[in-house]
Amino acid sequence: MIDHSPYDNMEIPAQLSSVVADALACGQGKRRHRLWLIRLITWVPTSLAACLVLLLNLSPTFAQGVCSLPVVGEVARIFVFREYHSENQFQYINAVVPQIENTGKTELEQQVNEYLQQLIENCLEESEARAKEYYDAHVATGGDPADFQPVGVNIDYDVKYLSAQYVSLHITHYETSFTAYQTDYYYTVDLDGEQVLTLKDWFGDNYRQIVADSIRASLSQWSQEQQHQLLPNLDLDSLITEDRSFYLNEQGQAVVVFDKYELANGAAGRPEFVITQ
């Protein structure tokens, strides 16, 4: 089980305010598109690193300025590596591919970046096939090709959690057509451990019981109307697998995610549960 106590007991250094002021001054008027800095060099004190990471996430101006401060030096970042913008007779696409760099862990970076690139390429291929099916069905049923409304395909990402050790990403694949289609992917990386995390990595060998018990406790707080939305004969334990999707929220807590219709009917959407022990 991963020990989170170092992050719970961090103290804010007294010199942080002056560092922030210097960074804001040198970065005034500058902006950087989609920059999240997630890991500082090892000789920066842990508590200072954690405070800086928070500021880097909240303030683009601070992020721009802090790059020139000698106390920080080399940092890792997540950035937009590639963008796709295209349109044809049956779909239009807006998609981005995030990448990670400067972690100092070449193999880990390659693994993560290859996964993200392949994931988004697969999403685009699946979207194209679906859009072509819609178009062909429209024409086959007598529709005028000129009247077909292209399917909108949007693939984007956001960073759910940043620290000196962990980065948690959320990839969203959304399509607008006759019915809305959405798929969510979550990817959490332990930079120090050089691995992609599973629920078992985070909670230990007893992860199934920990997660299931926490979700049952949350479900018990649902209203009667909400509980009626749960699927009949629900076997929650069978849904808690090692590869179950989860991410880290802003407080560094694991949040387990269920797809639409997996746990409850469509009115419940995509239920998420903060796992407490």
Helical content band:
25-40%
The CATH class label of the largest domain is: Alpha Beta
* CATH fold call of the largest domain: Heat Shock Protein 90
Q: Which structural category do the helix and sheet elements fall into? A: alpha+beta
Q: What distance separates the N and C termini?
A: 12 Å
Rg, Å, rounded? 22 Å
Strand order, sheet with most strands: 1-2-3-4-5-6-7
The assigned CATH architecture of the largest domain is: 2-Layer Sandwich
The CATH homologous superfamily of the largest domain corresponds to: Fervidobacterium nodosum Rt17-B1 like
Mean pLDDT across every amino acid position: 79
Count structural domains: 3
Task: Walk me through the topology.
Layout: H1 5-8, H2 16-27, E1 36-39, H3 46-58, H4 60-66, E2 76-87, E3 91-101, H5 106-140, E4 151-162, E5 166-176, E6 181-190, E7 195-196, H6 199-203, H7 207-219, H8 224-227, H9 236-239, E8 246-248, E9 254-257, E10 272-274
Helix pairs in contact: 2-4, 3-4
Give the structure's gist in a few sentences:
The protein is 35% helix and 26% strand.
Overview of this structure, please?
The protein is α+β, with helices and mostly antiparallel strands and about 280 residues long. The chain has three domains: about 70 residues, no CATH class; about 120 residues, Fervidobacterium nodosum Rt17-B1 like (Heat Shock Protein 90), CATH 3.30.565; about 80 residues, Actin, Chain A, domain 4. The chain is about 35% helix and about 25% strand. The protein is built from nine helices and ten strands. The strands form two sheets. The protein has a seven-stranded mixed sheet. It has a three-stranded antiparallel sheet with strand order 8-9-10, covered by helices on one side. Strand 3, helix 5 and strand 4 form a beta-alpha-beta unit. Helix 2 crosses helix 4 and helix 3 packs across helix 4. It is flat, with a radius of gyration of 22 Å. The two termini are about 10 Å apart. About 20% of the residues have low confidence.
